């Protein structure tokens, strides 16, 4: 059977299941189980004949959602926040994992542009970072305190300001996705080029190691969150540009709902980054090197595991539960 005919034949049924999942149509447990088994049959057919199709991805997501609706326990309801971070977000990240790959790809490209631009044009850093900041940092480097800029202001005052600033940057990366993802790429390019120029600036003055000891204490959570927020913006843009079997409005509504949940998951990491920058980074060069490395690589493992590895584990576990439930 051709995929187009397969979609046409089952589209109304799938849309009806979406209505059930969203709570717009009520079904008794027997009817829900019947719908679920029917949907699993469609998914098995799609996996056999259209394994790399968006239809298969869609049906897999739909079956996961109805499974959660049927088998969600009171314990899950009582621990909604835990369920959100432990299961719901990882499943969404797995579903949209290609957008995380795109975000990392563009982030790397834009950062390299910043490095190459700073290398070929010595005035580029002044334009990007500001002449006052550059001159102050040069003086700090000469005095042996490359991260001196992080030592100004009170700890709690700096922390609050940093957290709100970083959340604002993340919100722009996400919300600008409404312009078909182009706005997200523009915001990502601005921040990534700045990062590349910033790091080359320290390399050019022979202070890259000292700067890395301080900047990446908070930078791991901050920058990784920025990439995930860009991922959310790209999901939002794609939901508008590529509605698939949905109407454009329903596609946007689903894309917004899913991407917003992923965006919310970055907020704890952004807050942690602000706390580290306000309270810890100012002591970076006084700390034992091994402590710097523990914080940096510990942060990288934690956030990298959560967004890159854990989603596959949760998806595999959920699929196993679905298979067992059907049998």
Summarize this entry quickly.
The protein has 327 residues and is mainly α.
Describe the fold and architecture:
The chain is an all-alpha fold and 327 residues long. The protein folds into 2 domains: 72 residues, no CATH class; 237 residues, no CATH class. 82% of the residues lie in helices and 0% in strands. It is built from 13 helices and no strands. The chain is elongated, with a radius of gyration of 23 Å. The two termini are 26 Å apart.
What is the topology?
Blueprint: H1 3-21, H2 29-49, H3 54-71, H4 74-78, H5 80-95, H6 97-120, H7 124-129, H8 131-142, H9 155-175, H10 182-204, H11 208-241, H12 248-279, H13 289-326
Helix pairs in contact: 1-3, 2-3, 5-12, 5-13, 6-10, 6-11, 9-10, 9-11, 9-12, 10-11, 11-12, 11-13
InterPro entries: SpoIIM-like
Transmembrane segments: 99-118, 173-203, 215-242, 262-281, 287-309
Keywords: Membrane, Transmembrane, Transmembrane helix
Keywords:
327 residues, mainly alpha, elongated
Instruction: Provide a count of the helices.
Output: 13
Question: Structural class, from helix and strand content?
Answer: mainly alpha
Radius of gyration: 23 Å
The major β-sheet equals: none
Number of strands: 0
Classify the helix fraction into a percent range: over 70%
Number of domain modules: 2
Please state the overall shape, judged from the principal axes of the Cα atoms. Answer: elongated
The SSE order reads HHHHHHHHHHHHH
Q: What fraction of the residues are assigned to beta strands by DSSP?
A: under 5%
Distance between the termini: 26 Å
In round numbers, the mean pLDDT is: 87
Low-confidence stretches: none
Pfam family, one: SpoIIM
InterPro entries: SpoIIM-like (IPR002798)
Keywords: Membrane, Transmembrane, Transmembrane helix
Transmembrane segments: 99-118, 173-203, 215-242, 262-281, 287-309
């Amino acid at each position: 059977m051709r995929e187009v005919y397969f979609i046409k034949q089952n589209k109304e049924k799938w849309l009806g299941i979406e209505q059930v999942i969203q709570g717009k149509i009520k079904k008794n447990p027997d009817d829900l189980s019947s719908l679920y088994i029917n949907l699993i049959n469609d998914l098995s057919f799609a996996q056999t004949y259209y394994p790399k199709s968006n239809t298969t991805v869609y049906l897999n997501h739909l079956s996961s959602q109805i499974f959660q609706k049927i088998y969600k326990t009171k314990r899950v309801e009582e621990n909604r926040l835990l369920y959100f971070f432990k299961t719901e977000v990882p499943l969404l990240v797995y579903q949209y994992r290609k957008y995380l790959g795109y975000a990392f790809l563009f982030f790397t490209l834009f950062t390299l542009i910043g490095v190459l631009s700073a290398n070929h044009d010595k005035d580029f850093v002044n334009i990007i970072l500001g002449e006052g900041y550059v001159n102050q940092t040069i003086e700090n480097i000469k005095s042996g305190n490359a991260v001196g800029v992080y030592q100004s202001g009170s700890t709690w005052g700096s922390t609050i300001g940093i957290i709100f600033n970083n959340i604002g940057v993340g919100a722009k990366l996400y919300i600008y996705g409404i312009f078909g993802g182009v706005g997200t790429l523009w915001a990502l390019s601005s921040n990534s080029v700045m990062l590349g120029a910033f790091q080359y600036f320290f390399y050019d003055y022979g202070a890259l190691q000292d700067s890395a000891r301080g900047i990446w204490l908070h930078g791991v959570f901050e920058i990784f969150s920025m990439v995930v927020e860009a991922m959310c913006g790209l999901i939002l843009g794609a939901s508008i540009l590529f509605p698939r079997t949905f109407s454009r409005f329903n596609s946007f509504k689903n894309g917004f709902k899913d991407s917003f949940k992923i965006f919310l998951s970055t907020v704890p990491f952004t807050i942690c980054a602000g706390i580290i920058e306000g309270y810890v980074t100012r002591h970076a060069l006084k700390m034992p090197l091994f402590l710097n490395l523990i914080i940096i690589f510990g942060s990288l493992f934690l956030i990298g595991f959560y967004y890159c590895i854990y989603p596959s584990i949760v998806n595999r576990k959920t699929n196993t539960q679905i298979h067992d439930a059907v049998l």
